[in-house]
Amino acid sequence: MNTPDHPEHGSAPVDHGSAPVDHRAAVAAETARFVAVVDGADLAAPVPSCPGWTLADLVKHTGSVQRWFSVLLRGRIQEPPRSRDVDLRLPAHDDGWVDWLAAGAAEAADAFAATDPDASMWVWGADPHARFWARRMLFETLLHRVDAELALGLRPSIDPALAADGIDEFLVNLPFATSFAPKVANLRGADRTIRFRCTDGEGDWVVRLRPDGFGLDADGAGAGTAADATVDGTAADLLLLLYGRLQRDADVFERVGDEDLLAHWFANSEF
């Protein structure tokens, strides 16, 4: 996942009743978990969930994203940046990658401390404030921590409240991702709805596909009514489903309704 220029803005993220997540603190915690996973591992190992990448590529990508977002925050940018050139200070030797990843979280913490989360900023997604970048950084880091665990044969765990917030972050921002995920523009329909519903919390999202695009129904809209297709699962499993780390036919999900609609969604919603 990248962060290309996208000038559109939209509404703030929808609150689905879960406890507030401290995105800034969670970035530090998730990076520490990522560091613990890869410390001592063979960084030449392939990452099946990111085809063509090794663990070293995964670490470099995550640390680079953290540093890039930190630059954006410190600059409080108000328009799409013309360059993504950042002094990444890459390690001189392969044995320096783990410490380099940990240092990225420290740079992010410094940027967070110097930035009002409510400050207006350019973003590529729905919430034009500095807090967008902390939230986006969190789920970039969390997802790639999971990728590292999967690559090493470990069973990932994700806190349900954190996973529910990640589902919301994904669905709120996806309509704005067409500049770097062009297939998202295919997510249209004649007022067709897909529900993603958590079995271990209060998360319940209804996505409505319209002739002119798609988006989340307002909080509570459609509650108690049947969607054209519904996927039930734990928050963690639904998050991994949306990001393509699980398939919808996995036995951890219960699906009801229009399978063609679900196939259309998952064929076009990757970013």
Structure, explained:
By secondary structure, the chain is of the alpha+beta class. The protein folds into two domains: 23-157, Four Helix Bundle (Hemerythrin (Met), subunit A); 181-268, Nonspecific Lipid-transfer Protein, Chain A. Helix content is 39%, strand content 10%. The chain is built from seven helices and five strands, in the order αααααββββαβα. The protein has helices spanning 23-38, 55-75, 97-113, 131-151, 160-173, 235-242, 259-268, and strands at residues 192-198, 204-210, 213-216, 229-233, 254-257. Strands 3-2-1-4-5 form a five-stranded mixed beta sheet. The longest helix has 21 residues, at 55-75.
Number of domains: 2
Helix content: 25-40%
CATH first level of the largest domain: Mainly Alpha
Number of helices: 7
CATH architecture verdict of the largest domain: Up-down Bundle
Number of strands: 5
Helix-strand pattern, N to C? HHHHHEEEEHEH
Compile the SSE list and pairings.
Blueprint: H1 23-38, H2 55-75, H3 97-113, H4 131-151, H5 160-173, E1 192-198, E2 204-210, E3 213-216, E4 229-233, H6 235-242, E5 254-257, H7 259-268
Parallel strand pairs: 1-4
Antiparallel strand pairs: 1-2, 2-3, 4-5
Helix pairs in contact: 1-3, 1-4, 2-3, 2-4, 5-6
Short structural summary:
With 271 residues, this protein is α+β, with helices and mostly antiparallel strands.
Identify the notable features of this structure and list them briefly.
271 residues, alpha+beta, Four Helix Bundle (Hemerythrin (Met), subunit A), Nonspecific Lipid-transfer Protein, Chain A, five-stranded mixed beta sheet, 5 strands, 39% helix, disordered N terminus
